[in-house]
TrEMBL record:
<feature type="transmembrane region" description="Helical">
    <location>
        <begin position="622"/>
        <end position="645"/>
    </location>
</feature>
<keyword id="KW-0408">Iron</keyword>
<dbReference type="InterPro" id="IPR023616">
    <property type="entry name" value="Cyt_c_oxase-like_su1_dom"/>
</dbReference>
<feature type="transmembrane region" description="Helical">
    <location>
        <begin position="213"/>
        <end position="235"/>
    </location>
</feature>
<feature type="transmembrane region" description="Helical">
    <location>
        <begin position="476"/>
        <end position="501"/>
    </location>
</feature>
<keyword id="KW-0472">Membrane</keyword>
<keyword id="KW-0813">Transport</keyword>
<feature type="region of interest" description="Disordered">
    <location>
        <begin position="578"/>
        <end position="598"/>
    </location>
</feature>
<dbReference type="GO" id="GO:0016020">
    <property type="term" value="C:membrane"/>
</dbReference>
<dbReference type="GO" id="GO:0009060">
    <property type="term" value="P:aerobic respiration"/>
</dbReference>
<dbReference type="Pfam" id="PF00115">
    <property type="entry name" value="COX1"/>
</dbReference>
<dbReference type="InterPro" id="IPR000883">
    <property type="entry name" value="Cyt_C_Oxase_1"/>
</dbReference>
<keyword id="KW-0249">Electron transport</keyword>
<dbReference type="GO" id="GO:0015990">
    <property type="term" value="P:electron transport coupled proton transport"/>
</dbReference>
<keyword id="KW-1133">Transmembrane helix</keyword>
<feature type="domain" description="Cytochrome oxidase subunit I profile">
    <location>
        <begin position="52"/>
        <end position="555"/>
    </location>
</feature>
<comment type="similarity">
    <text>Belongs to the heme-copper respiratory oxidase family.</text>
</comment>
Length: 759
């Protein structure tokens, strides 16, 4: 299977899905008519002149908010690309043998997933959030250097293209090879995505591959862009603050962006220097990192002197968002503000003194290793201060069940596990045992996934009304957030378990006894992927279809005196643009006193009704899935009789969970999925599919999932057999959808909820 074509196809499917969502949402949107109603007539299409004007505006803008949105859009595209790499890695690891991709392809995916996510996803998104909101938080008109700000962003797209030029050239060559002789495409076919690991250790990174040169140039260019952004943030915070804002009352997010930017300007120039040295080794015969010269260990020192501060470059903005957003949804101001600021400064300083704990197994002098072990343990203290302050902020608060709350609480839990396991790895004997195992992968991703993207999603929900003037679908947001927390915990806790069993990391194959845990980890990763697509759908659809914001205080922040400057700016904007007067809360209370004389229901008390409803729906869904699967099986038996479907293909299902290839076991697994996975997903998404939760919705849902069945059970049919196979598959799934929806409706599962939904 061609990995490049598969990856580009998956990326194209996501992009086309986003465009279709936008088109359908635009067509369904009704505009206010003069009589106060909503007209649903034909919308005027965008003219060529308007499209040209919009393109010129967005490519030449120096407005900090628009540049922030460009950063976020770029980071989202990079995240989808790197996320597809991750999904392909996890799919490959479903089986112990390298029978989906080759070992070479696995190494390419492993290399580019890490670099894409670290360099082109996380930092740009946080810089985008900072660009949009930091000037609003400190009362500045714009960033200190608006034109330099624009340059910092526009260096990123070409850097990503350079870094991933291999797959672009490979796909272009594969497409042109249909009509053009291969001799004419030798230049394109010479490019191949590097398979050297995201750490780019020599001598692997010295191997001949022209794409490695472009990768290094792309990373160097992105480092220049990041350094420009860091300088701009520092200048903005230091010189552009409003006169009323001093260091004592500077908001916590701005403090974190300031410290992050200080780390950037010390760390990224060093990375750029190391990349240039590696380029010289590759192309001009120098020996900085060759065995006969400076040696590969020198590269490790330079890489990790950048690499570990980089961890905090992407971690500190997330903690700043946590400290800013969490208090808003628990009705209390941030506990221990000064100590969180001090801990952030301490992390910024100590981050440059821990790099060698990545090199405990390289034969470093034991005395040096001991000093780095002490520093690595010490840097956990300021992180722990943050965690204790977050927990104390929630203590005795008025916790609201909302998507940002779920993400914040889930982040705290996963970060505690990831942080504690990091302390274990800081201890030299433990690291020597587990350094080359999945324990490190689990620890690393519990930090990276457990708090960083979570806070990005939380920020998107928290500030979405301000950015778009509309409200997202809160029910879908709560479900998506819960799914993301569950998927992340399931995936990376399982990797921790693999590490405890000492399975080596970075290998494309593994012993068969580990296959069960790998299946669990892959299922968790696909849960993460589904939740991300739900978020993307919610953001795009709600931009056109969400309820219009009628108040500048959608989160009732005035009631707890947490109406921060960016919301004040938004209130002024609404009043100027739409004539919406400022709103005042019915009750203003200190943020540390409960809202009512009686204590509000506990989080447990709020979850119990939801859990009961979920169990009721799950029972109805299981019954519907059982009936639907039996009906589907009947249609498939007809297809077997006609010779267009191989019943033995069910046996292959059993091998995915480590069972022998057995028809009965495979069909039992198929029946189990038909009673659990697909009904629960149907119940979860039913409210967001066209039509009521009845037969029509079931047909929509069955049509979508039929595509996965077609791919999974395809056994090489061609011609008329293929057409018949497709027809029977679609018919079988339609009958499954009718049986599923009909039984759920008969048993009374999932009644329509109120439009307002949970907060």
């Amino acid at each position: 299977m061609n990995r490049a074509l598969m990856e580009v196809s998956l990326f194209s499917v996501v992009v086309i899905g986003c465009l279709l969502t936008i088109v359908l949402a635009r067509r369904a949107r009704g505009e206010p008519s003069p009589d106060g109603g909503y007209a649903t007539g034909h919308r005027r299409e965008l003219s060529l002149a308007e499209a040209k004007a919009a393109a010129i505006r967005w490519t030449t803008t120096t407005n900090h908010r628009e540049i922030g949105l460009l950063y976020i859009a770029f980071g989202t595209v990079a995240a989808i690309w790197g996320g597809i790499d991750a999904m392909m890695i996890r799919t490959h690891l479903l089986t112990p043998e390298a029978n989906l991709w080759t070992e070479q392809t696995y190494n390419e995916l492993f290399t580019m997933h890490g670099l894409t996510m670290l360099i082109f996803f996380v930092t740009p998104v946080f810089f985008g959030i900072g660009n949009y909101f930091l000037p609003l938080l400190i009362g500045a008109d714009d960033m200190a250097f608006p034109r330099l700000n624009a340059i910092g962003f526009w260096l990123l797209p070409p850097s990503l293209l350079l870094a991933r030029l291999g797959i672009v050239a490979e796909v272009t060559g594969a497409v042109l090879a249909v009509a053009v002789p291969n001799d004419w495409l030798s230049v394109l076919l010479a490019f191949q995505e590097p398979a050297i690991g995201w750490t780019m250790y020599p001598p692997l990174s010295l191997a001949p591959n022209p794409q490695t040169n472009f990768l290094l140039l792309g990373l160097h260019l992105s480092g220049i862009a990041t350094t420009i952004g860091g300088i701009n943030f520092i200048a903005t915070v230091v010189y552009e603050r409003d006169e009323s804002i001093g260091w004592a009352n500077l908001d916590i997010f701005s403090w974190n962006m300031l410290i992050t930017s200080a780390i950037v300007i010390f760390a990224f120039p060093l990375l750029g220097t190391a990349l240039l040295m590696l380029l010289l080794d590759r192309n001009f015969g120098t020996t900085f990192f060759a065995v006969e010269g400076g040696g590969p260990i020198l590269w490790q020192h330079l890489l990790w002197f950048w690499g570990h501060p980089e961890v905090y470059i992407i971690f500190l903005p997330a903690t700043g968002l946590m400290s800013l957003i969490l208090p808003k949804f628990v009705g209390r101001k941030l506990f221990g503000f000064k100590f969180i600021v001090y801990s952030t400064i301490a992390i910024g300083v100590l981050s440059f003194g821990v790099w060698a704990h990545h090199m405990f197994v390289t034969g470093v002098d034991p005395r040096i290793r001991a000093s780095f072990m002490a520093t690595s343990i010490a840097i956990a203290v300021p992180s722990a201060i943050k965690v204790f302050n977050w927990i104390t902020t929630m203590w005795n608060g008025d916790v609201r069940l909302a998507a940002p709350t779920i993400l914040c609480v889930g982040s705290v839990g996963l970060f505690i596990v990831g942080g504690v396991t990091g302390i274990f790895l800081a201890v030299i004997p433990v690291d020597i045992v587990y350094h080359g195992t999945y324990y490190v992968v689990g620890h690393f991703h519990l930090i990276l996934m457990g708090i960083i993207p979570f806070m990005m999603f939380a920020a998107s929900y928290y500030w979405y009304p301000m950015i778009t003037g509309r409200m997202y679908d809160r029910r879908l947001a709560i479900f998506q957030s819960s799914l993301l927390v569950i998927g992340s915990g399931l995936t990376f806790m399982t990797l921790m378990a693999l590490g405890f069993l000492e399975q080596p990391r970075r290998y494309a194959t593994y012993p068969a006894e580990y296959s069960g845990l790998h299946v669990v980890a892959t299922v968790g990763s696909f849960i993460i992927g589904i939740s991300v697509l739900m978020w993307l759908y919610n953001m795009l659809w709600s931009y056109f279809q969400g309820a219009r914001v009628e108040t500048a205080d959608p989160w009732e922040l005035k009631a707890t005196q947490q109406f921060t400057p960016e919301w004040q700016w938004f209130e002024d904007r609404l009043e100027r643009k739409h004539g919406i007067p400022p709103s005042e809360p019915e009750e203003v209370r200190p943020s540390y006193v409960p809202a009512q004389e009686e204590r509000p229901p506990s989080l447990y008390g709020r979850i119990v009704p939801v859990a009961r409803r979920a169990l009721s729906d799950a029972g109805a869904g299981a019954a519907g899935g059982f009936v639907g699967t039996l009906l589907l099986t009947g249609v498939l038996l007809v297809a077997v009789a006609l010779g267009v479907f191989d019943l033995e293909s069910f046996a292959n299902l059993a091998t995915l969970v480590g069972l022998p290839a057995n028809l009965a076991l495979g069909y039992g697994l198929f029946l189990f999925a038909g009673m659990t996975v697909w009904p629960l997903l149907f119940l979860s998404l039913g409210e967001y599919l066209p039509g009521e939760l009845t037969f029509i919705t079931g047909l929509w849902y069955a049509t979508v999932i039929a595509s996965g069945f077609v791919i999974a059970f395809y056994t090489g049919q061609t011609g008329l057999e293929l057409v018949t196979y497709l027809v029977f598959t679609l018919l079988a799934h339609w009958i499954y959808g009718l049986g599923l929806a009909g039984m759920i409706t008969y048993l009374g599962g999932r009644r329509p909820t109120s439009p307002e939904g949970p907060r």
